[in-house]
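Follow-up to my earlier ticket, as requested here are the two runs.
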Amino acid sequence: MARTLATATISFILLSSSSRKLVGSAYAQDPTPYPSGEAYTWPPLGQISSTPDSYASNTLPVSSTYTAGATPTYAANVPPLPEVNLNIGSYPPMDQIPPTDSPEVQAWKAEINWDLIPKHDPTQTGDCAPGKPAYETRGPDGHCWWTCGQCVRDVDISTCANSMDYGHTYDDGPARYTTKLLTYLESKGHHATFFLIGSRILDRPEVVRYEYMTGHEIGVHTWSHARGLTTMTDDQVVAELGWTRKIIQDVIGVTPKLMRPPQGDIDDRVRAISLAMGMIPVLWSSRQDPDTGAEITWDSNDWRVHDGGNATTIQHDWEDVLGTTNTVFPDHGIVALQHDKAPET
């Protein structure tokens, strides 16, 4: 069994109240000059638009590779990197909900005390509507369904402890352009938390090793990202989380302690299974504006550009959200949702 990191943290950077620039870092790291050249450039904001999924121009390799036996310099008493010999046939198919009858899933199920897992049915499309049973039990006195009302429990991470801390998180990698993002973060001296889709690690294990070895936090974002976890059976939730946890262990030698449900889709049943498997749920910040009553969510919506949205409008809306941080969260920092799947983001 791979060893578990001793603490679970969200990598953060300090959000300056005066200029809203991102300064500081969760770990001490000196910025490195951002390289020049065509592969490192990006167009002006107004020229960024959706690209096809096949787009692969100006991709970058990781700037350093790490061999078996290497250990990170930012943490003590962690195991060395393992050999990486991923046999694709030993894992479920990519981008598909894993089968639930495998020996691995059965073993993970046997480790859970099912008496502690709430007994309610998976949600269905359209359940978040008045009159539906799942809607009526969506709040803190019921199943605490985040997707339908953004209910959170004390065990969830959705804010940072200190005012003006910025929880810098990215979902859906590792992907073609994750390395470009990593280079940019290094040029600013920043780290982030990356929530990884397990099946995509099969293609890019070297990116995950690089993220881990250079001080970024690694979390689980399910194996397939096929649909929300609350729509799945108990066995499917175990399979989605377990296979992603396993491939991360296989690649970096330690066990991830954080998970983020796709689309934030979590309720008490999924939450309990995740915690029973040793993973703390991480969402993103949301709170009502005390002046207007409007719900403000720290979702950058960067993914909408890939779906055809206007990059300038989306960026300006995001800057407006960031501008409310000090007013809406005077007592905490925020956790922001961003993505590293598509080149536009």
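Run two:
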Amino acid sequence: MSMFRAKKLDIGCFINIKTIRDHSKRKAYAQFEPERQALRYIIRNTTLPQRTRAEAQLQLTQMHCYTRPTQIRGRCLLGGKGRGILRDFKMSRYNFRMQALAGNLPGVRKASW
């Protein structure tokens, strides 16, 4: 597990243990993604022998859980919150509202109709 910890904190946002862990998961995912895709291709290829496909399946299941895409969670850049995140701005709803009202987000206006 120590091999998946970030050696250098180049996160550029609010830092707590959850954001550090999420950053480590993102780096591990990016590093092992080609290997995972190759194994998944082997598993789905029905022209290959069953033994080869089973070995690929075993290798895929034995990979660390940080290499899975489902482990990555969108977090707020300003507060590190993990819920209520607007993907386009990578901010929580509250921080998005405060930044928009302050005029710090270009192209975002308060709605009025």
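The only thing I checked on run two: Residues 14 and 78 are 5 Å apart (CA to CA). Let me know what else you need.
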